[in-house]
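To the team - 6-chloroguanine complex, inputs and output below.
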Amino acid sequence: MYKQTKTGEYMRIDIITVLPELIEPFTRESILGRAQKKGLAEIHVHNLRDYTADKHKRVDDYPFGGAAGMLIQCQPLDACISALKAERKYDEIIFTAPDGETFNQPMANELSLKENIIIICGHYKGIDYRIREHLITREVSIGDYVLTGGELAAAVMADSIVRVIPGVIGDVESALSDSFQDNLLEPPVYTRPAQYHPVSNPEETWAVPDILLSGHEAKIREWEYEQAVARTKRLRPDLLE
Ligand code: 6GU
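Output:
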């Protein structure tokens, strides 16, 4: 039986694309690969061409009305989505498009709580609008610039969604304390050595702020917070509004 609210931290993402070879290797590496090995997420990439009824394996055609470019046709998308829906219930069917709602951290957090989602990678001049009207539940852009296809957008979204699933990143703390989770940028961070002498001038010393070496936990947290606020004011004042 399908669960409406998620109890276990487990999620399935199905990505539909005309370029599976572009996105598949990405889903096997890094955070996404690790999450899947840990059994916390599953990412399945589907080749749209496998669902076409066309004998020449075509998935696109010219737009009615004489506009430029090619459009992905209804049939292969409908067939692929229907095949997936026959297997499980989907919480969201997302279409990647530059004119969609802008993806951000709250959206990644929200989507990470879903059980099953589909991400359809847009291509050419887009897809037949009837698919957007009848099957898509959400249209998402990753920023105000145009990409050749939705594959990079799908990869970006899958990465940021999966990394906030509890247990995917080593300590829960680290995903929750990321920049944007609290609308604050990260404070500066340093590692050993405490005194570094740069190649360009070995006489010079680049020192780690004393406070971080003081061992005074409360004062360190306070300093980090002040630094985070100062960096946010300077670099992203819009986040503080
Ligand atoms: Cl989701 N798709 C395309 N083609 N371009 C984009 C985008 C998506 N987000 C920003 N630019």
